[in-house]
Amino acid sequence: MESSHKPILVIKIGTHALLGEHEMPKMMFDRVANTIRGLTDQYRILLVTSGAIGFGVRALDLKSRPTDINQLQALAMVGQAGLLRRWREAFDETMIGQVLVTRHDLANDEVTHTLMRSIEAVWSYGAVPIVNENDAVSHEEISFSDNDQLAAEIVAAISASYLILLTDQDGIQADFGRSTQRRIEVANLNDVERYIMPTKSSLGSGGLSSKVTAAAVALNAEADVYIGLLDETHDITDILSGKSGTRIVQ
Question: Where are the domains of the chain?
Fold first, then answer.
């Protein structure tokens, strides 16, 4: 049985960080799953994943992500099965539990309490809850934030201690693209705007701006918030310890 005394760590990975620009790479799925398995003795972990629409785009061999809401919802329906299958393969013998919610669900206290009890039960079986926006019936997340805001609202709903927003960059970078580019170790919410550049991919709908908005929600819920990179040289423990990524503070 999972200990209810362990702090809750919410890890969110976006479409671009998960799929990149190449042919549905399996490597990032395995990397995230291996990392989570290695941390379950210390934390109760909930994974918020994007990527259903991106999977649909790839599965149907589309040139780009459409803008029509009905097409996007259809792509989410097509892609969700493939996305979950990839996570199932990546976690191997570790069980996973799928949770599909909308932000409207989280605005309902009764639904939120039921969600928390269900997630606690998933942890009690030694499984990892994997949350995604129910894009098939939702408009908001499809439109603008690639599940960043959803992750933050889940942090608030379940009283999580930590939120890590995984990206394809080592945290927030000052002087991005220049010879003087450097990682910002700690960034105040009021100062982050000057580092924001357009970073949305052809498959996702996020970017640094949506992560900053999400960070504000999670910080108001008294969680520690980090933006960072997971690859062969950067790990979740490095992000939490300040060796990589950026910690966002009020």
Answer: 8-249
pLDDT at 210 over 90: no
Q: Are 173 and 19 in contact (CB under 8 A)?
A: no
Q: What is the DSSP letter of 20?
A: T
Mean model confidence pLDDT for the chain? 86
CATH topology of domain 8-249: Carbamate kinase (3.40.1160)
- DSSP, collapsed to helix, strand or coil, labels residue 37 as helix
* Tokens 């928390």 sit on residue: 116
SS3 string, 137-184, reads CCCHHHHHCCCHHHHHHHHHHHCCCEEEEEECCCCCEECCCCCCCEEC
pTM of the model: 0.89
SS3 content of the chain, % helix, strand, coil (to 5): 45, 20, 35
First to last CA, the chain: 36
CA 157 – CA 150 distance, rounded (Å): 10
